């Protein structure tokens, strides 16, 4: 599949998410109870629901999307290039509406590529689109499809080579594939703090864009191609 994959039909994607509320005390009482029930078996015996709330961003029922970054491959003068665009802000509905409007202009056969996308990014997007009352774009309508009918690409799944118990982070995968990545990034566990405490959305957007770039480079490695040099990567507003 990868050898014949047309990169012009691939959109690389990454999302950043945070808890819907800055702290557990801000959560409406009914949802506090639901959070306690949801996380009962995930918390260790010493953790309270309040202490565990910092992880709420990874659960679509209690989190929200604050950034979606996309990467598009294209060729110019026989040179492979990558264009990056982001939708970010505090209004999730607006972010998802812009994202949906963009996808509605794309072919139905468009394939997404993300690292751990099948376990996180793709279902999270669908759930939050539904919560926000936005029709799920055709490219993300996966309900009822068998696993082999979903043609999206997951770089973590590619690295598993059939081993369903194996998890490898994007940072580790890029390191072992000798893909240069910036060392000044935040990591996923810091996004909530940077958003609610530092109030630095721009920093999160930059982090999200860098993950898209890294995922795109990993995909190129799987195709046996050279990575795209920094000067051929453009970030558009």
Notable characteristics:
237 residues, alpha/beta, 6 strands, 19% strand
What does this structure look like?
Keywords: Exonuclease, Hydrolase, Nuclease. It holds the Pfam family DNA_pol_B_exo2. Residues 61-225 form the Predicted 3'-5' exonuclease PolB-like domain. It comes from Pedobacter vanadiisoli. InterPro entries: 3'-5'_exonuclease_PolB-like, RNaseH-like_sf, RNaseH_sf. This protein has 237 residues and is an alpha/beta fold. The protein has a single domain, classed as Ribonuclease H-like superfamily/Ribonuclease H (Nucleotidyltransferase, domain 5, 2-Layer Sandwich), CATH 3.30.420. The protein is 33% helix and 19% strand. The chain contains 8 helices and 6 strands; from the N terminus they run βααββαβαβααααβ. The chain has helices spanning 29-38, 49-52, 92-103, 121-131, 155-160, 170-176, 191-196, 201-222, and strands at 10-19, 63-76, 79-88, 111-114, 153-154, 233-236. Strands 5-4-1-2-3-6 form a 6-stranded mixed β-sheet. β2 and β3 (79-88) form a beta hairpin. The protein is globular, with a radius of gyration of 18 Å. It starts with 9 loop residues before the first strand and ends with a strand.
The total of beta strands comes to 6
CATH topology: Nucleotidyltransferase, domain 5
What gap, in angstroms, lies between the N and C termini? 32 Å
Under CATH, the homologous superfamily reads: Ribonuclease H-like superfamily/Ribonuclease H
> How many distinct folded domains?
1
Q: What is the helical fraction, as a range of percent? A: 25-40%
**What is the name of the CATH class?**
Alpha Beta
What average pLDDT do the residues reach?
92
Radius of gyration (Å):
18 Å
**Helical segment tally?**
8
């Amino acid at each position: 599949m990868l050898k014949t994959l047309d990169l012009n039909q691939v959109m690389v994607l990454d999302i950043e998410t945070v808890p819907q509320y800055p702290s557990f005390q801000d959560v409406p009482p009914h949802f506090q109870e639901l959070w306690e029930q949801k996380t009962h078996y995930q918390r260790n015996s010493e953790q309270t629901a309040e202490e565990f709330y910092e992880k709420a961003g990874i659960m679509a029922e209690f989190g929200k999307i604050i950034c979606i970054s996309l990467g598009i491959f294209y060729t110019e003068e026989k040179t492979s290039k990558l264009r990056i665009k982001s939708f970010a802000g505090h209004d999730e509905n607006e972010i998802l509406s812009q994202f949906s409007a963009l996808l509605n202009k794309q072919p139905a056969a468009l394939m997404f590529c993300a690292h751990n996308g099948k376990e996180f990014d793709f279902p999270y997007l669908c759930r939050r689109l539904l919560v926000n009352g936005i029709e799920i774009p055709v490219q993300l309508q996966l309900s009822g499809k068998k696993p082999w009918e979903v043609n999206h690409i997951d770089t973590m799944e590619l690295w598993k080579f059939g081993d369903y118990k194996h998890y490898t982070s994007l940072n580790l995968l890029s390191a072992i594939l000798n893909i240069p990545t910036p060392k000044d990034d935040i990591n996923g566990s810091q996004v909530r703090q940077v958003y609610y405490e530092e109030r630095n959305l721009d920093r999160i957007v930059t982090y999200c864009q860098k993950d898209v770039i890294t995922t795109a480079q990993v995909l190129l490695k799987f195709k046996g191609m050279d990575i795209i040099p920094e000067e051929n990567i453009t970030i558009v507003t």
